[in-house]
Specification:
The chain has 137 residues and is mainly alpha-helical. It is built from five helices and three strands, in the order H-H-H-E-E-H-E-H.
């Protein structure tokens, strides 16, 4: 015989996982659209391509990345690139871009990032390494 504590725990677990949700289509519909259009479509691939392109640019300019870029995330290593947080983060807002929030050293490329935003990020990469080279030289 199953105890009442077990039954109560099972009911709690079912509700935790949405088992008693009415009109679950409100939850399922956006998930279905995301899977069909983003993950199975070409939009996620575009974000991953931008991340790989940004990674290649960062390295071509003299930067170092923490891990190879295989997804839509770029993990750069500022200190190994000869930069400090103060060299990079404060001036990013001047270029209209957000990086390192909430994790420093990370840039996540969303499928809706425009070519203009990507160009601004590339310009920031170029500017930070130009400033670094001027300080060294």
């Amino acid at each position: 015989m199953v105890g009442t504590a077990f039954i109560q725990r099972a009911k709690w677990s079912r509700r935790l996982c949405g088992g008693s949700t009415r009109a679950s289509g409100v939850i399922v519909a956006p998930a279905k659209v995301a899977i069909e259009t983003i993950f199975l479509g070409e939009q996620l691939q575009g974000a991953q391509d931008k991340a790989r392109h940004a990674s290649a640019l960062w390295e071509a300019l003299g930067g170092t990345i923490q891990v190879p870029t295989k997804t839509n995330m770029l993990w750069f290593d500022l200190s190994a690139s000869g930069l400090t947080d103060e060299d990079f983060y404060p001036r990013c807002s001047e270029f209209g871009i957000k990086v390192g929030e909430p994790l420093p050293g990370r840039v996540v490329f969303h499928h809706q990032i425009t070519e203009d935003a990507f160009a601004r990020l590339s310009d920031r990469f170029r500017a930070v390494f130009k400033e670094r080279n001027l300080r060294r030289g």
